[in-house]
From TrEMBL:
Lineage, highest ranks first: Bacteria, Pseudomonadati, Pseudomonadota, Gammaproteobacteria, Alteromonadales
Membrane-crossing segments per the record: 28-51, 71-93
InterPro entries xref list: VanZ-like (IPR006976)
Species, as recorded: Motilimonas pumila
Protein's UniProt keywords contain Transmembrane: yes
Domain VanZ-like: 25-93
Protein name (Swiss-Prot/TrEMBL): VanZ family protein
UniProt keyword annotations, A-Z: Membrane, Transmembrane, Transmembrane helix
Length: 106
């Protein structure tokens, strides 16, 4: 998933949907998914995952600032952060509610 997000972030932008803030929705979806998957997959403190993914989002923006036809955006980093928070919430719902309700899934 990291490879796919990196490829999408660093390749020239293809003509896309003309929906206002569509790129922010993409950031939100990507980082909430990454957060949920990482929290479910790794037994490390959640803070490391959050900081690592936020660092990844900042790195994407720094690289994009050096690419032609791309630009860095603080709003994109904010959308990444909101996605991380959303992913953490989805993890909480999954881990604390669903997994306890259906313990046989473990």
């Amino acid at each position: 998933m990291i490879a796919a997000i990196s490829w999408l972030a660093f390749t020239p932008k293809a003509p896309g949907l003309d929906i206002q803030h569509f790129d922010k929705i993409n950031h939100l979806a990507a980082f909430s998914s990454l957060t949920l998957i990482a929290l479910l997959a790794f037994s490390v403190p959640a803070s490391r995952i959050y900081l690592g993914l936020l660092g990844y989002g900042i790195t994407i923006e720094l690289v994009q600032s050096q690419l032609p036809n791309r630009f860095a955006s603080v709003a994109d980093i904010a959308a990444d952060g909101v996605g991380i928070i959303l992913g953490a919430g989805l993890y909480w719902i999954t881990e604390k509610w669903l997994m306890k309700k259906w313990q046989w899934l473990r």
